[in-house]
User: Which sequence fits this backbone?
């Protein structure tokens, strides 16, 4: 069982990779419901402590690749991520505001004292703007909004930082997946076929030297 903040990060990365790939495959297979699915993943990612238990960031980042591939539409994904994270953090805030100290006595909070200590220290060091900053600091997303509620941070101030950080974070979260897709050849990503119309939009690449292979067809474009 991890006991330090660094252990929590390492565990999340290790578990998230495989599970995130499964979620991405599910999103792609149910593209008609992608907006709702991504919204729910983003909501869970922003929900207090639950964000540590699901590979939300992995799946949401990879959604950027599905946007670049033409499988999903940018504004649908953007709105789903931003809306889900705003609602998730707002829910975390109110859980902290209503239940206070009792919330940290429940599982899995009581199993992760290091995360609580790091979240409280971060909030007291940065004040209200910690709600904005924590959005970009991994596991702190799962606890700082709850701490803000516990210390009775004014709701209007919390929502200002919450909304502002979400609308900035959403495209930043999508960009690695988007760039990863566009950096590959038009032949596909990881064996996935390029969506219809993608090949026509891709500029031809210059030919490079390669060792001769017996029986290999000649590339007429070279």
Assistant:
């Amino acid at each position: 069982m991890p006991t330090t903040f660094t252990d929590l990060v390492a565990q999340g990365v290790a578990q998230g990779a495989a599970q995130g790939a499964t979620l991405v495959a599910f999103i792609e297979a149910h593209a008609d419901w992608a907006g709702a699915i991504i919204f729910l993943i983003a909501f869970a990612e922003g929900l207090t402590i639950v964000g540590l238990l699901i590979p939300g960031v992995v799946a949401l980042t990879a959604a950027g690749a599905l946007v670049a591939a033409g499988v999903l539409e940018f504004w649908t994904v953007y709105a789903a991520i931003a809306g889900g994270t705003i609602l998730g953090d707002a829910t975390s805030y109110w859980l902290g505001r209503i239940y206070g100290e009792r919330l940290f006595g429940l599982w899995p909070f009581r199993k992760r004292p290091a995360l609580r200590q790091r979240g409280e220290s971060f909030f007291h060091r940065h004040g209200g703007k910690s709600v904005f900053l924590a959005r970009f600091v991994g596991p702190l997303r799962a606890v700082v909004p709850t701490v803000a509620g516990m210390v009775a941070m004014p709701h209007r101030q919390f929502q200002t930082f919450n909304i502002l950080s979400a609308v900035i974070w959403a495209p930043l979260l999508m960009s690695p997946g988007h760039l990863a897709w566009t950096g590959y050849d038009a032949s596909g990503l990881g064996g996935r076929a390029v969506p219809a119309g993608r090949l026509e939009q891709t500029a031809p690449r210059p030919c490079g030297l390669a060792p001769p292979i017996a029986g290999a067809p000649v590339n007429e474009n070279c």
Notes: The CA atoms of residues 39 and 80 lie 4 Å apart. The chain has a mean pLDDT of 73. The chain is about 60% helix and 0% strand. The radius of gyration is 21 Å.
